[in-house]
Design goal:
Layout lengths: L5 E4 L5 E4 L7 E4 L2 H17 L19
Antiparallel strand pairs: 1-2, 2-3
Length: 67
């Protein structure tokens, strides 16, 4: 899976980034390599959150897929 990230230079130094395709997903880093490490963690964390419980009947199935 590929996502687009907007990287900004922070006024106080370092960088911060946001992922427009994942609302609320943002992070920062003092260096660009640190920002990249933090981005992977932020995206993983944002995508692993179960936002709401799905309504399921006895005929439905729950499956997990890797993206």
């Amino acid at each position: 899976m590929k996502v687009k990230v907007v990287v900004h230079e922070a006024e106080e130094g370092g960088f911060w980034a946001e992922v427009p395709g994942i609302p609320g997903c943002a992070t920062q880093g003092d260096t660009f390599p640190e920002l990249l490490t933090n981005l992977y963690e932020a995206v993983e964390g944002c995508l692993s959150v179960d936002v709401s419980s799905a309504k399921k009947t006895d005929r439905d199935q729950i499956v997990e897929i890797a993206v």
